Amino acid sequence: xxxxxxxxxxxxxxxxxxxxxxxxxxxxxxxxxxxxxxxxxxxxxxxxxxxxxxxxxxxxxxxxxxxxxxxxxxxxxxxxxxxxxxxxxxxxxxxxxxxxxxxxxxxxxxxxxxxxxxxxxxxxxxxxxxxxxxxxxxxxxxxxxxxxxxxxxxxxxxxxxxxxxxxxxxxxxxxxxxxxxxxxxxxxxxxxxxxxxxxxxxxxxxxxxxxxxxxxxxxxxxxxxxxxxxxxxxxxxxxxxxxxxxxxxxxxxxxxxxxxxxxxxxxxxxxxxxxxxxxxxxxxxxxxxxxxxxxxxxxxxxxxxx
Length: 306
Fold this sequence. Notes:
Elements: H1 3-7, H2 11-18, E1 48-52, E2 60-67, H3 72-89, E3 92-99, H4 102-109, E4 112-114, E5 122-124, E6 127-129, H5 140-145, H6 147-156, H7 163-174, H8 179-193, H9 198-208, H10 216-233, H11 239-264, H12 271-278, H13 283-292
Parallel strand pairs: 2-3, 3-6
Antiparallel strand pairs: 1-2, 4-5
Helix pairs in contact: 6-7, 6-8, 7-9, 8-9, 8-11, 10-11, 11-13
């Protein structure tokens, strides 16, 4: 059923025309290797992968990608993820892409067809959440209804002109939220703000509205404020010592943030890894570990390729 196409490759044009799809007769044909095994595996990691079960539907896999900018190479990778997950787990895959800017969200949400235009073989159609379709939640009452949704909404609307009002509504609710739930959310928002101007708004709200919290980010903010106050009051000759103390305080706060993130995600932290994190005084290395905590499967994923 297939060998005849090797001997008569032009046959495809006749077959396709009989099926109602026209392909121009080829002018050149090359027989390609049929082995599709990857002898040198290429590392591919989805940001988050969940197996979801409901009462009404069959279990399915949810792959979640955080996309910061347009990346044409991602489209083929996402199609690969879907095919691989279906092959490995025999469960239907679903892809959710989360974006912080409208242009990237609109790019990611367009259906992508793989194959000749006459007859696309595959169609990739991810579900996309971003500032173009996520609710803008500025009412504390709405935040209370779904704190997790409000948190993601605040992160996706990081460039919204009303982001200050959005974050203020969050702190209003977090003041009355148990620490076991609020502390991870405080950290997630801090990381989600990234280097956007909204990050400074969140830090100021943390210093005032949530000043009594003991989360790593709030402790880091208070440590910075104390360090600045001490710096103003002490002699000029102690500037170098103060800088070292401030750096130690910043490293300590970052280490606590990493541990809090991992514990909130249920990732086991062996004693040697905990000591490695808490004793690290390299701010650049600590920041690298922080960026890896949302996608780490084990604590060792933090230390990859240092």
